[in-house]
Amino acid sequence: MDEGGAVLVVELASVVDDGFGGGAxxxxxxxxxxxxxxxxxxxxxxxxxxxxxxxxxxxAVIPKGAAAEVxxxxxxxxxxxxxxxxxxxxxxxxxxxVAAARRAGFGGVFGLARRRGAARLxxxxxxxxxxDPRGVDAAWRRGGSASVGRRQRSxxxxxxxxxxxxxxxERLAGKQKAVFLDYDGTLTPIVADPxxxxxxxxxxxxxxxxxxxxxxxxxxxxxxxxIEERVGLPQLYYAxxxxxxxxxxxxxxxxxxxxxxxxxxxxxxxxxxxALAAIPGxxxxxxxxxxxxxxxxxxxxxxxxxxxxxxxxxxAGLRQGEGKKVIExxxxxxxxxxxxxxxxxxxxxxxxxxxxxxxVGDDLTxxxxxxxxxxxGVAVLAGDPGDRFxxxxxxxxGEAEVMELxxxxxxxMRSDEGAERVR
Length: 423
Fold this sequence. Notes:
Elements: E1 7-11, H1 19-22, H2 27-38, E2 42-46, H3 49-52, E3 60-62, E4 71-74, E5 81-84, E6 88-92, H4 95-104, E7 108-112, H5 118-123, E8 128-130, H6 134-143, E9 153-154, H7 165-172, E10 176-181, H8 201-211, E11 215-219, H9 224-231, E12 237-240, E13 245-248, E14 251-254, H10 256-260, H11 262-276, E15 283-287, E16 290-294, H12 303-312, E17 318-323, E18 326-331, H13 337-347, E19 355-361, H14 367-373, E20 378-382, E21 389-390, E22 394-396, H15 398-409
Parallel strand pairs: 1-2, 1-6, 2-3, 6-7, 7-8, 10-11, 10-19, 11-12, 19-20, 20-22
Antiparallel strand pairs: 4-5, 9-21, 12-13, 13-14, 15-16, 16-18, 17-18
Helix pairs in contact: 8-15, 13-14
């Protein structure tokens, strides 16, 4: 063991059989941790000091929560050592602990999923999910401290999904697919009036054909009942209000944080309607678990007043986010489109190495889902959002290309003149 080597903090509850009562490291994990130590890692147990002190697989022990500090001191390590969080990696099988490690600023945050649960760990902020702790070593050496995992890049550098359709087909070959689709700006063009965003018959047909072959869910900021009526395909799952309200043929979820936020949303709605009433073009759209403040039709001369008044209205339990010409007020809980996607994958038993999740979306709110895919899925950016940064792998432009992509995902051999045929 190299005292100056990389440090891996392991949440003990994730690796000890029967929680803290069993007192033994899971047999399939003992060898990997020993191998990590031979490779120069200093392996630190977080929590359960009474048990960890007796486990030879760990070099040092810290109390539960100690790793949330900017730096922490190791106990039992030879001659002691103080470690900066930004220079250490963290491993846990708990989404809550992964999210806490991400907030703490660890250089690399890894989820441990020996069977299921990978999607939720990714959605909680894991840079990568491993079934074997040795996978941490490979990812860390590729990226180095503080540079592991997902990376954004300029939209202008993202390749076309259709131009790279051969590579996309190869990526999906032999795999089951789970497809998640945004609505506004993806299945329909962006329009000035949200009520006018109607799904074309051709797009509805393309989505229905895809749903005949693979799992399909619509994940949108719209109210769930609204999106169900607009799409009109009962075989799909629908996640409305950025995933706070999910329903489909075999299950549903109303996030308790969304329900608890309804009184705050009611109060904010009243104040915002009064505050923005005098600003031409401002639209306050109420949904069950969110508020959308649209400014697409607000004259440039009034935008300063719009933003000032919109941001004056704050409520405990709500957070503001940005979309395309819209400010969103949502319940201030750890839930978004990425976490909704992860919940659906797990509930539908699609959270496995045999399934490739694909998310197609156009907005900033879709980036949570793109990031949650990590390297295990395909993130597709729809439309032309300008020169911003994105987690997307590939992109498509406009309704026609979205429909063509749905055909590729359905395994159809369709292409326009001049486009490469998918084999």
